[in-house]
Amino acid sequence: MKEILILSGKGGTGKTSVAASLAALMPDKVLVDCDVDAADLHLVLAPQVEEQHDFISGVLPEVDGDKCSECGLCAEQCAYDAIVMDDGPQIDPLTCEGCGVCAWFCPEEAITMADTTCGIWMQSQSAYGPMIHAALDPGEENSGKLVSLVKREARQLAEEQGKQWILVDGPPGIGCPVIASMSGADIVLAVTEPSASGLHDLERLAGLAAHFKVTTCVCINKWDLNEEMTRRIEARCEEYDIPVLARIPFDEDAVRSVVQGVPLVEFSQGPATLAMKELWHHLEKEAYQEGEPRYPVLGDGKITLSS
Amino acid sequence: MKIAVASGKGGTGKTTVAVSLALVAKEAQLLDCDVEAPNSHIFLKPTFTDTSTLTLDVPEVDEEKCTYCGICRDICRFNAITVFGETMMIFPEMCHACGGCFLACPEDALLHGKREIGVVEEGRDGSLNFAQGTLRIGEAMAPPLIKEVQSRASGPLVIYDAPPGTSCPMVTTVRDADFTLLVTEPTPFGHHDLKLAVTVLRQLERPFAVIINKDGLGDEQVAQWCKDEDIDVLMRIPFSRQAAEGCATGQPLIHTMPDLEQQFEAMLAKVVSGGAA
Q1: Are the beta carbons of B99 and A79 separated by less than 8 Å?
Q2: What is the per-residue pLDDT for A156?
Q3: What's the gap in Å between the CA of A237 and the closest CA on chain B?
Q4: Residue spans in chain A of domains classed CATH 3.30.70.20
Q5: Rounded mean pLDDT of B69-74?
Q6: CATH 3.40.228.10 fits domain A2-55+121-306
Q7: Is 3.30.70.20 the CATH number for A65-109?
Q8: Cβ B204–A136 below 8 Å, yes or no?
Q9: What is the mean pLDDT of residues A41-67?
Q10: SS (H, E, C) chain A
Q11: CB contact under 8 A, A172 and B169
């Protein structure tokens, strides 16, 4: 079983569009959407939800007004300034990290930590195979924990059903949810675009992949929007020893297919579709290549910013 | 006044809008709060005059004083401390810096170690004041660094370039702003993530309005939805290959498309005067 994780650093480079096309091209897999705070893959793959579960992760303090003496110790000790005293402690759930320090030290034992639901996760069936996805409640934290849960469920399902692949659509950035999504991935497919921002954020992502020693490949989306920048990205990838698997041209059919809610490769036989097929061909070869993992090599470990 | 430029979906043009807005303002400061992938500096090419490193206090054990009682392990809800027998292990990367272990230790046996979160740089590009945070690679906790960047806010007009998504980094950025501009694109992805971002801002009871970028590329559902929800669309930036090409090489939008300058000025005036949303 091989797990392919689609990331980008910069948002909006085309992760979900690439994921949707790979979902149509890749046989025998479980699909996963790890962009839990802005999940979009379901908009293209239209899965039917079969099971829905609450995501109980966070804990939040609950104050027993009868016991509270309004001493203010909780507010004073809160490292996140999530508590203000205003006719008893008022707790801001969006700022609270759930550390429980307030409950631990409350001299009146007036605070208890209660489980809270921060979202849902679902097991669904799509035309392209089973799918595990989630929706973090807007504004919530613990996105990393939800990513870990979604990945664990997907892996279990893939093992039960003897699937050959797990295809994961990842979140943007390089922070908490991205770090959580990298755990257990065989290959990171970094989708970038030929812009100074795309390259800058690709370098930060390559740094993270090197840090966690995950094999990384690149595809350059909308490559013909700036041919010179595409060549710069390819040169940088060569320097880092990261294979560039495909160049996907700008193709208005890509936008039209999203509007229609269909994976590009099933919508059009245009140039971008051909490039997606080439991408899948090379990705499959890369996944079953023998030898050591090829994580990015960054020289002295420091990233040289190109901008 | 502080204006955040946020989006939900990534790549809709937050940085494009934030930079153009800062450039048309007479006196402004731009703070790049997208610490995972900060890109504003690519368009501004600022000269940095001040750099500082943000660290969080994480525990380190003083073996001389520690009695291995395990209270620090018990209070830690982030599994950053384990104690077995006379061995104590601390995983600083798991620590959320709540400070509970320091407060709970009866022997005063925990020392204040440091974990680097990232770097804050300050400088200027011409008359524009600029600061950005860059999260250390491998670091998971963005919000403390975002708050540190926001602490540099000064002057009558501050613009925050926000991170994408709708979870804690985005919330941290927009809740400190007086007004939020949500940049979206006219596609099902843009529409779906805009709805999530709007939910956050309504929960926070913060005023906001929408900018539709790459207008003409997809369909009308975003504009129709905003109309139905009674949300102001302050600007529609047409999709153009020329704009995309300029953006790719780090050119601010109002330099590639000078015709838009007046529209940005008018939008800014409307937001500042309280006439929006």
Answers
A1: yes
A2: 97
A3: 18
A4: 65-109
A5: 96
A6: no
A7: yes
A8: no
A9: 95
A10: CEEEEEECCCCCCCHHHHHHHHHHHCCCEEEEECCCCCCCHHHHHCCEEEEEEEEEEEEEEEECCCCCCCCCHHHHHCCCCCEEECCCEEECCCCCCCCCHHHHHCCCCCEEEEEEEEEEEEEEEECCEEEEEEEECCCCCCHHHHHHHHHHHHHHHHHHCCCCEEEEECCCCCCHHHHHHHCCCCEEEEEECCCHHHHHHHHHHHHHHHHCCCEEEEEEECHHHCHHHHHHHHHHHHHHCCCEEEEECCCHHHHHHHHHCCCHHHHCCCHHHHHHHHHHHHHHHHHCCCCCCCCCCCCCCCCCCCC
A11: no
